[in-house]
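Researcher: Quick sanity check before group meeting.
Model: Go ahead. Protein one:
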Amino acid sequence: MSTASITEKKPDAAAFARGLEGVMAGQTSICSVEQGKLIYRGYEIHDLAANATFEEVAFLLLEGHKPSASELKRFKGEIVAERSLPREVIEFIKSCGPMIKSGAAVPMDITRTCMSILGNLDKDAQDNSAAANLRKAKRILAKTPTIIGHMQNVIDGRPLVAMETGGDPTLDHAANLLYLMTGTKPGAEEARVLDVSLILYAEHDYNASTFTCRVISGTLSDMHGAVTGGIAALKGPLHGGANEMAMEMLREIDQYTGGKADERKINEFMQNAFATKRKLMGFGHRVYKNGDHRAPILNKLGRKLAEKRGPEWSKWFDMGDIVEKIMLRDKNIHPNVDFPCGMTYFTMGIPVPQYTPIFVASRVTGWGAHVMEQHADNRLIRPLSQYVGPAETTW
């Protein structure tokens, strides 16, 4: 390659945006992330959280419109019928206990591998038509909670729950997920809190994992391959893994303060974190500069649940309030939805390493919608880069 050709291939330095920040990378009719609103196909997130169920939102994202009563009944029946896992996936999950206990793998890794195996077994795997993609998206939605539930049973050393059916067909998506993890049917309030959290996590336009799915599907690769890539992207602590890291930080604070919501001690902890330039998860957002609309919705529901359980649970939200106050006062940074999510799931007794897989159980709806949208009007996603390596030389 000549020096001239290197120069020709360089994009304009003025157009360079680190991390593609501020770059408009495509168009979508699925979701709009705005400073003042979060909209799924025309419906604002506060409206959905207050008035919709997760299954209704899943239908909205995957089939493109608000469901009628008969459409919702049909959709829920389709999901329930696809909940059980193939034998090959179950056998892999049964083998994962030692991998997780040794630290070689975490639940997100197991979830990712299960998704890849499902892709090898799906009869529609190589068919990228709209009809096949919709069928696959529904199967993925149905089976992801079963993966999580069976995995947690293996970790806990218990028999798998409802292996033949993938749960209780009378339970909705969120309630069935909790049932699969514990073997106990959750109360209505717990089920509703998890249901709302799934609504809040379902879609968020061109975030890192969704963009990953679109890049993969843009090569005309398949739905399962794209979702497997999405899971890998979501795992990272700068993306979906932030809810786990936020709760781990609060547990550190709990130890530091001796289990009390002591504002002076929490301030000491936070000032030390600032001084050492520690990355504090659950705060800030690339788009939302004035606060994440989803965070107060989940904070309110989680706190209410914690207060019913008692002071030893509501203390997490008391500590969280103090941390939020200090972050806003000293850094002018607001919490994102991952911060109250960590406290809420902890209050519900959900093991911290399963927080991000539960995120997957929701976000597969958004990913599926984006894969279908990409396939329907495709152009290979191939940005330029700015070369900053050595000048041309001879070998």
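Researcher: Fine. The other one?
Model: Protein two, sequence then structure:
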Amino acid sequence: MKRKQFLALLSAALASIFLVLGLQLVNPIQSPASTTLFVSAAASLKDTLEDLLPLYQKRDSNVKLTFNFGASGALLRQIEQGAPADVFIAAAKGQIDTLEQKGALVPGTRSNIANNRLVLIAPKNSKLVTSFASLKNPGVKRISVGEPRSVPAGQYAEQVFQNLNLFSALKPKLVYGNNVRQVLATVESGNADAGLVYATDAKVSTQVKVVATAAESSHSPIVYPAAVLKSSKNIDAAKAFVKYLSGSEAKGVFRKYGFIVK
């Protein structure tokens, strides 16, 4: 009798073990799912955000950041046309304002993460350009600026020229870039005698020199607002990343590249 009871208990125990093993085979233990965040960001943020990438990866290995860099206006059009984006970081408040007015942002996620300065640059060995006023000289043939309809740096450049009463004289010399990094490249290659870019862009180049810094009163404030888009499929992860951009670790990297952070 005891033997029969023992065998019955043993059979029940084995059945339970096999049942558990079977369930694990059908539903194996899942590791945390990785999340991909699509970040559309102004071209002038390229070096900074790429530097932040491994730092954030150490912080949250389950989040993969994918960057889409370009002119703020062009990025806005992409987002409006349905391009995937979880976070948008522009180089001016206008593009973020547009999305906010349309109700396309997650409330409470908008924040200004950095500021910048606008500078006049020339090829490193140039002696033609010595100031904003020198741009009127006949020897200066081409001045590269961002396309003002889509590139905030181009809008700021026009404001500076108008403030200095130079716009009418310089307009025939202007050549336009699709983003601020293209403006920088045009001056680096010598295809323009001068250009207007952000201080942070000039800082990463060894082929140009800063001739002058535009007075802050001569243009609208250069601010970089970031926000989470309502269309995001990963709103919590996107919120965490935007919050990180205002933290001490991120601020250190922004300062390294010459951005102004509080």
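Researcher: One line on it for the slide.
Model: The mean pLDDT is 90.
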